Structure formats: structure tokens, C-alpha cells
């Protein structure tokens, strides 16, 4: 029970504590107590698990499904439908929400039900199958999932409790296999010592070591998208894979967004929690609303996913329609993003229609960045915000007379010569993040990458009373020199994940800016009579700056020479290297998985060789280990003859072969010294029996080998495979200790 509590405790970081906590603990305790009482009645393992499952279903039905259950207790078909709907609802809440989530009835149902099933599995593995190490792995895995979902510092209490629970599981199992005499030997002290050293190493030494980089969004092979600002490690990867290709009727290639982040906790930016509607519903996005007089241009962008497995669909902004998708997709009208099932983007080809407001310089200067027209999360600032953020914003924007000019001043300052784009400096300085402290450090060091620029710009805009948010998506990619229907096809690479800020203007909507130094071209609007001129060489804002056909930044590809046709030619070689790397990883994993079976096979051959030389204990060890590997009950109190008779009676082992092995081990154990045997001195070199006739020794080895073969053939294919791949005798070191 302690292990269950320790494994589920980290879930409170993902879902806010509530009644579900007590429901989970109560159900888990009831299952464990029920299993304990039923085992005292000698009930079969299947019967115990069935009753535990019935208890779980009953409790979940009474608490969550009683409206559709018969008499409020017995689940019927309507209850199954209700349960399925709750699972779907909970899945959507998990997908669209950010931690910590509100414990809704659907989420509580999923957590309590899953905890019940998990408790049954652990109870069966640890007590029925007597595999405490595997149960410990399961406990650790469940406790690790919340840490992966919401990275944070190690919870010392939770980890210590889990470590103690796993050690207790292992010690309880080993005590059950030891002779009653001598149980109070040094085993407990050794286990306690190992546990103490492990805890000291984990809780004291490990925190002082260099910390790992943040979770990545993609990697070798098929890329993925993490809808957060954990982009640093992904951007630092040397290899590049093509994630998609696109072409657009827009005069400038658009950026492709996947998610927006408005809520800032002071430490992290949270993806927006907005309501969603099925994409196939007509007009789900709605029209783009602008102030009369502001022109709106319609464009079509064709996207073909080549190597991207994600639930977030890359789309240009502001989308008003998406055609050509297969599968189930939902649209979020408030930020005009599209989401589907996990990995649903792979192989998709679709067309996105956008309606882009195109205000003139005078029109956007006359618009206010009004925080009252958007949600409060887009304007909120955390307590204890470092003073450097607000003071720097006031200093840079001093002298500006409108919101747009103030933002252009900020953008130009970031893109000026004082700042440097770097993927390494943030790591070296220890602020590879997007929190308030990281932004403060970035403003002092003036070196970072898109996450730092976007976070700093968005927070500084908020200190000036302008609503802002951050967008995660992809740069427009590199030119492939291929033209389809008059449109240039661009290749978007995995390393072109990007983050940029947006500010909301009345009558125009969300306007994107590009503060990241040396990356692309800054956002600018021009008057109706201005001619286009590039901002890349002159970041200083002026009244006659270059016009942009869209409030979306007119940014180019990164400055690492990706915007050339040579980059596309390099993709096959990069893919070959990626494939080679994944091949090496696959071979390594296969070798790791095969290692226990290989070690056990080598050990078994050594034992059979010893048996052929007359070592009766080695022959018996082969038989006993085979029984343990196949999950046959082997008690520490069983004598060789008791176990041998049970194997003959219950598992159809040849009686003559079994009797030969049992008689040999009995002679080795009880015969006077020098009469046919020599006492065992080690696990495999046990002292050989005096075997004048070599044929008797060969018969002993043959009997042990035949007995093992018969046991393996009598087992089910699944049990036999498990015995070969993960031999329990090797894991637990089960050997015969004869005195």
C-alpha cells in the first residue's frame, strides 16, 4: 500500500488535489485488504484478481455511474456508454488543458479507475507471481509519468517513500525464500545500507550534478511537437529532418503555428486552455473581424506533412478554413489552431484558407493594444517580477506616442547590435528557460535564442499594459527551387521550430512581432504610399518603414544558411545518419533485452557441464531454476523430494529422470563425507561426486536436461517465452542452499 501511495503522489502535480485523492487511496486500500484476506483462504490467484476487479468496478459504478446503473450498483450497457463518454471527456481535458488541471468528474473517474486497475496489477505481480522487482519497476514508472508531463524539482518525500516501499517489497520476498534459521543474519542490514546509500546519492549528490536539458520537442527519426517553450535541446540537435513541405499564394511565406501560450505562472508559459469544436462543423473558425476600412486579404496555403507525428496541426494565421484532412480534428476558434489525435499529422496533406488583416501604418498606430478585449491571462503578471523587466521596457519605449511605435522600439532594440543569437550561451549561464528569472538573466547577458527573446518581449509588453502571448510553431522553411502552380515549394526542417510573441490590437487582432536577433525580418507596417524595403539591415523604426503585406512578421529563414537549395540536397545524407543512429539504438536495446536470457543460458550450460562431471547439486539447480523461471511454486521449505514429486504429479515430468536427480542431490546432502560425494563449496563448483563410472555422471546431466525440456514443453507459449527472455532465477538469484 505504501508503494501505491508513493507512486500516485506525484499525480497531484498534474491534477489539483481533491476528492479523487481520497477515493484513490480508499479504493487501493480496499483492494489490498481484500487480496490479503482472500489469500488466507487459499483461493486461486485468478479468483482473487476477479474479486478485486469486481470490487473496483462496483466502487467506480456507485461513485461515478450510479445514474445509469441498475439499482445504482450493477453496471449495465448504459453504464458502459457513460464510462466511455467520461474517458473521452477526460482525454480531451488532458489534451487541451495545462497542469495543474481541475479535477472534473471525468478526470476523477479516469484516475480512480486507473488506480484501481493498477493496484490489482501490482498486487498480482508482487504477491501472486512473486516478482517484487517487476512490481517495483511498475511503481517507479507510474511515479515517473507526472514528472515527465510537468518537469519540476524532485519531491524528496515522494521519492523517499517510493524507495522505501520498493526495498520493503524486495526484502519481504527474500525473507520468504530464506530458511527460518538465520533469517536475522546480515541481509537486512545490507539491504538497509544499500537503500541508505541510494537515497543519499539521489537526494544529496545527484542535485549537485549538472542538470539535464529541458524536454525536447523532436529528435531523430519522426519528429514531434511539444506545445511548450522547451525548444532549446531540440534546436541544439545537429541533425535536421524534413517535417513538412508547403507552398502559399501569400506574397511572403507564412509561419505555421501549432499552439499559443498566454498564461504565465512566473516559471513557465502554459498552453492556452480554450474550448474546441469539430473541424468539420461549418464555419467553425468564424470570420476575421476588423475595423471598417482595414483591408483583409485571402490566401491559400498547401501543407504536406512528410515526417511529423503530432496531434498539433501546423497552420498559418489567421485560419478561416482547413480542407483535405483525414481523421477526427478539432478547431480552437479563440486562437485559430487545430488539434487531433496523437500522431494524427503524419501523412496528412491539406489546404488552409487564411484571411489576413492588412492595416496601413497610420491605421495600426491609431489602434490601441487593449487588454480589455482579451482574456485576463494575456495581461496578468506574476508577483515579484524582476525589476529589470519593467524598467528596461520603460527606458526603451520612452518618447514613443502610441503602442505600435513602443513595440517597434522594443523589437528594434532586441534586433540591434547589443544582442546576440546563441544556442549555447543560455546553457553556459544556467538560464535555459522562459521564466521570469531566466528573462532577467537574458536581459543582462543579452545572448539567447527565440524562447528568451519571445518571453522577454511578451513580458515587457505586459508591463506596458499591452496584452501579449507567445506562439510556438515553425519558420517558413527553405526554398526547394520547385514551383507548383506558380507557388514556390518550401521545405520545413525539424530544427526550424520557433517561438515568437503576439500583441492584441483593437480592430486588427493579434499582431506578431519578431524580436529574435538575426532571425528573419522584423515586423513593420507602412503607409499606403511607402515602398517595400527590407528591415534586416536597418532595424531602426521610422515613420516611413517598409510595409508588410500582413501583420504577421515578414521573416526569412534562420541565418544558418538553411535558405538554400543545398539544404534540401543534404537531407538524404542526414536521414541516412539518423537511420544509422536509430539502428544502433535498436541493436543496443535488443542486446539489452536479450542479455538476461543469454546470461542465464551460459550459466545453465556451465551447470550442465558440472553435472556431466558428477556435480549433483548443479544438476538439481538446473531443475529448480527451470521451475522458478516458469512460475512454478517453489518454496524455501520444500525438500528436493517434495518439489520433485510435485513436478512429476502436476507437470508430467518423467518420474525416473526426476528420481535420478533427486536421489543424487540427497546423497550429496546427507551421505557421509567421502562416500560418493564431496560437500558443495560454491554455487557451480559444488564439489563433485566420486563417480567411478563416467556413464552415471552423463546420465545425471541427461536427466536434468530432459526434465528441463519436459517442463518447458508443458508450459504455455507465453510462460515459456517469458522464462527464456526474463528468467526469474537469474533476477532473484534462486539457488539451492543445502547444508
Automatic annotation (TrEMBL):
<feature type="compositionally biased region" description="Low complexity">
    <location>
        <begin position="537"/>
        <end position="559"/>
    </location>
</feature>
<feature type="transmembrane region" description="Helical">
    <location>
        <begin position="45"/>
        <end position="65"/>
    </location>
</feature>
<dbReference type="Pfam" id="PF01841">
    <property type="entry name" value="Transglut_core"/>
</dbReference>
<feature type="domain" description="Transglutaminase-like">
    <location>
        <begin position="442"/>
        <end position="517"/>
    </location>
</feature>
<feature type="region of interest" description="Disordered">
    <location>
        <begin position="529"/>
        <end position="566"/>
    </location>
</feature>
<feature type="transmembrane region" description="Helical">
    <location>
        <begin position="577"/>
        <end position="599"/>
    </location>
</feature>
<dbReference type="InterPro" id="IPR002931">
    <property type="entry name" value="Transglutaminase-like"/>
</dbReference>
<dbReference type="Pfam" id="PF11992">
    <property type="entry name" value="TgpA_N"/>
</dbReference>
<feature type="transmembrane region" description="Helical">
    <location>
        <begin position="19"/>
        <end position="38"/>
    </location>
</feature>
<feature type="transmembrane region" description="Helical">
    <location>
        <begin position="106"/>
        <end position="126"/>
    </location>
</feature>
<protein>
    <submittedName>
        <fullName>Transglutaminase domain-containing protein</fullName>
    </submittedName>
</protein>
<dbReference type="InterPro" id="IPR052901">
    <property type="entry name" value="Bact_TGase-like"/>
</dbReference>
<keyword id="KW-0472">Membrane</keyword>
<keyword id="KW-0812">Transmembrane</keyword>
<dbReference type="InterPro" id="IPR021878">
    <property type="entry name" value="TgpA_N"/>
</dbReference>
<dbReference type="InterPro" id="IPR038765">
    <property type="entry name" value="Papain-like_cys_pep_sf"/>
</dbReference>
<feature type="transmembrane region" description="Helical">
    <location>
        <begin position="156"/>
        <end position="172"/>
    </location>
</feature>
<feature type="transmembrane region" description="Helical">
    <location>
        <begin position="133"/>
        <end position="150"/>
    </location>
</feature>
<keyword id="KW-1133">Transmembrane helix</keyword>
<feature type="transmembrane region" description="Helical">
    <location>
        <begin position="184"/>
        <end position="205"/>
    </location>
</feature>
